[in-house]
């Protein structure tokens, strides 16, 4: 039996009903799939119908079957029972506002990412409004957030990409265009992309381009951000982030990062396990916003899933890069356990 709590509700998926009988075989698999989409990924019935290539009434019947058969159990919980102990512990330890998303241990990486993205979109909506500038990172996590973001019409707002995405193999537009467009559409905001490489071949090349008026204009926008939303990449353990797996770094770069003690990055800017980042040579060639400038943004929302990211998140927290932390429960526990051992 696996339990997932969300918004004061607890959802329990079981293989059999109270009498030990399996649900009707003809509908059980489809009903469970529909229930996972509805309760864990927060998809609408219309969206589930499209995914399952069926009709909305059929989805409604599948969800009812899942509840009636005992495949899914919905239980109300009091606020006291659902007290956010992990959130309080993280707030006390790191001085951040934490938003913990309960996700079943059996969830896939994509399911975990989607669940966290839904909560991140709610946090973002609570702090981004008219006459504001929002900075956006790129990658799988931010793509998921852009798909989950709730429409909120704003006026005179601007969304700016915080780091370049080009490399020697691609322009990076496939990673950034759709994500930025979805954020812009959701908020009715203007979008400013950042058409530069993720990493330059030399610090001198970056310095020269940063003198161009067109690039200076975008950098100036980044320095006026009111809110920034990003994820954390980690160099070791777990599935690699796009910046580590899509041709952005070559073997000499990884060797240099290893020698400089880097453990992860925020927007392609690297830091060490203790949060320090001075002397990491690749940062001189990175197009991302320097961490000392990122830390000046009033609201800094970090979105992560997967407990393997705990060391990287801890480094970002110690660097002062985060004000709001949105993560699944497994990461939160891993992070607190890591902090306890340290």
Order of strands across the main sheet: 4-13-12-8-5-6-7
Specify the CATH architecture of the largest domain: 3-Layer(aba) Sandwich
What is the mean predicted local confidence, pLDDT? Answer: 85
Oligomeric grouping of the chains: single chain
CATH class of the largest domain: Alpha Beta
Termini separation comes to: 33 Å
What does this structure look like?
There is one protein chain. Helix 2 (45-52) crosses helix 3, helix 5 packs across helix 6 and helix 13 (310-318) crosses helix 14 (329-341). The protein has 342 residues and is an alpha/beta fold. Strand 5 (133-136), helix 6 and strand 6 (158-161) form a beta-alpha-beta unit. The strands form three sheets. Strands 4-13-12-8-5-6-7 form a seven-stranded parallel beta sheet, sandwiched between helices. A three-stranded antiparallel beta sheet has the order 1-2-3. Strands 9-10-11 form a three-stranded antiparallel beta sheet. The protein contains 14 helices and 13 strands. The model is unreliable at 1-23 and 76-83 (pLDDT under 50). It has two domains: 2-76, Homeodomain-like (Arc Repressor Mutant, subunit A); 85-341, Rossmann fold, CATH 3.40.50.1360. The two termini are 33 Å apart.
Brief write-up:
With 342 residues, the chain is of the alpha/beta class. It has 14 helices and 13 strands. Helix 1 packs across helix 3 and helix 4 (85-94) packs across helix 14.
Q: Layout of SSEs?
A:
Blueprint: E1 2-6, E2 9-13, H1 25-40, H2 45-52, H3 56-68, E3 72-76, H4 85-94, E4 97-101, H5 109-127, E5 133-136, H6 140-148, E6 158-161, H7 173-187, E7 190-192, H8 203-209, H9 213-222, E8 227-230, E9 233-234, H10 242-245, H11 251-259, E10 262-266, E11 269-272, H12 291-294, E12 299-304, H13 310-318, E13 324-328, H14 329-341
Parallel strand pairs: 4-13, 5-6, 5-8, 6-7, 8-12, 12-13
Antiparallel strand pairs: 1-2, 2-3, 9-10, 10-11
